[in-house]
């Protein structure tokens, strides 16, 4: 985990309490057999808001993230995206996933396709976009994430940080309403982490709705509107970054932060 110098907190694009709810999670429970991974989860993310989810390993952060586009099913409760409840399967679920971009720890790029083809595949196959339009959009997005010159290469020819930026561009190409990031920098070498975080900060500043599971506290301070702290499958605490990092309310959060500060 990197420990960058504390950046200035995000102040130019605050969305807490503004705009309508985009993601609503109500009384969600998730069991794996006898084990309960998510307990009594209630969380609303407003349009344009950046929510960073942090907590110790095994706290349910990634499980929560993956339930929002139904990569993980829930045992009970409801999740709605832009007013529509998550469908269980079929075309409706595929349509919803087009509205919910996701970037994983691993890049999951198609090794045999060029970078450009990786980014255009979804818009052409899923959204029925004309190839010329998809190519134009892909080139624009690759430029946005700083790798336009890599468009004709194969994934194996790129660094890990570059591949993760391709994965972000690929998710953005579907023109999603919300972006989910599940530990997007955890598989990267330390020198590559900031190049990915810089892209994510830019998205936040542009007003993209984002839910980010991460251990990068510098990003949480800089880009988040709200920090959600999880432990033992529950949301223990929610606050602005300033409030959370300077005055955590719960003993679990205080213990978590104290361990970060001593390493």
Automatic annotation (TrEMBL):
One of its GO terms (molecular function) is ATP binding. CDD domains: ABC_HisP_GlnQ (cd03262). Transmembrane segments: none annotated. It is found in: Cell membrane. SUPFAM superfamilies: P-loop containing nucleoside triphosphate hydrolases (SSF52540). Its main location: membrane. This is Amino acid ABC transporter ATP-binding protein. It comes from Microbacterium koreense.
């Amino acid at each position: 985990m990197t420990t960058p110098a504390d950046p200035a907190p995000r102040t130019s694009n605050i969305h807490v309490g503004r705009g309508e709810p985009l993601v609503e999670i109500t009384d969600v429970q998730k069991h794996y057999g006898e084990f309960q991974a998510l307990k009594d989860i209630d969380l609303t993310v407003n349009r344009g808001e950046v929510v960073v989810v942090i907590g110790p390993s095994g706290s349910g952060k990634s499980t929560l993230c993956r339930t929002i586009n139904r990569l993980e099913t829930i045992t009970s409760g409801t999740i709605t995206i832009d007013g529509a409840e998550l469908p269980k399967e079929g075309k409706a679920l595929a349509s919803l996933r087009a509205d919910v971009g996701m970037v994983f720890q691993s890049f999951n790029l198609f090794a045999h396709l060029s970078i450009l083809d990786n980014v255009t595949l979804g818009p052409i196959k899923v959204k029925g976009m004309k190839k010329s339009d998809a190519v134009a959009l892909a080139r624009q997005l690759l430029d946005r994430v700083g790798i336009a010159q890599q468009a004709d290469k194969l994934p194996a020819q790129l660094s890990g940080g570059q591949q993760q930026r391709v994965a972000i561009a690929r998710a953005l190409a579907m023109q999603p309403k919300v972006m989910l990031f599940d530990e997007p920098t955890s598989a990267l070498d330390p020198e590559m982490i900031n190049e990915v975080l810089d892209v994510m900060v830019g998205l936040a500043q542009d007003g993209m709705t984002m839910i980010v599971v991460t251990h990068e506290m510098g990003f949480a301070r800089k880009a988040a509107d709200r920090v959600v702290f999880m432990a033992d499958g529950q949301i223990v605490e929610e606050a602005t970054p300033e409030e959370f990092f300077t005055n955590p309310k719960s003993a679990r959060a205080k213990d978590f932060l104290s361990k970060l500060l001593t390493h």
